[in-house]
Amino acid sequence: MPEAANPSLRICRADYGDSAHAHALVSLLDAYAQDTAGGGQPLADEVKAHLAQELAARPQAFSVLAFDGQQAIGLVNCFEGFSTFACRPLVNVHDVVVLASHRGRRVGEQMLALVEQIARERGACKLTLEVLQGNRSAARLYERAGFAAYQLDPAMGSAQFLQKWLMPL
Question: How many Cα atoms occupy the beta-carbon half-sphere of 149 within 13 Å?
Fold first, then answer.
């Protein structure tokens, strides 16, 4: 059962130029990277040093942060793409992070609601994301937020997310 509404919870669009937001973004993404769902390895020092400025240099990027009082507890990183079938932008939800101490409190749902609002303001036709099969709590969050497997024709099955690294991490 979700906890009662937390009056100290604040969900906001990240300002990459704000040092507190930049620090929150990097520390939350690093916590996610070190989790088994994020690969189990910390971010490289170079990534930590340049992430906020690199995101700020990309107008197609935006992030949402969650704070409990002054503590940063959640992050969603997003990137605008383009749907050729709809001839409109789409928004890919690239990273979703909620600190373990605050999971189960609907923080992720609230951050995704702001992501959806921003995507609609951008004229996006849809939101996309990927989730690991074993990350059942994240999959439940995404289902509650209205996400479903991608299919054009059920006879062709659901889409798969594939990758090909072009450089080592």
Answer: 10
The structure tokens 């303001």 sit at: 121
Categorize the per-residue pLDDT at 30 as very low, low, confident or very high, splitting at 50, 70 and 90. very high
- 143 contacts 131 by C-beta, under 8 angstroms: no
Polymer length of the chain? 169
Kindly report, residue by residue over 42-65, the tens digit of the pLDDT. Answer: 999 999 999 999 999 999 999 999
Residue at token pair 């932008």: 89
- Rg of the chain (C-alpha set): 16
Residue 3, pLDDT score: 45
- Distance, CA of 157 to CA of 150 (rounded, Å): 9
- DSSP secondary structure code for residue 107 in this structure: H
Could you give the 3-state DSSP secondary structure of residue 12?
strand
Other beta carbons within 10 Å of 21: 20
Confidence of residue 1 (pLDDT cuts 50, 70, 90): very low
- Closest to 95 in 3D by CA, of 64, 72, 120, 124: 64
Nearest to 97 by CA among 115, 83, 81: 115
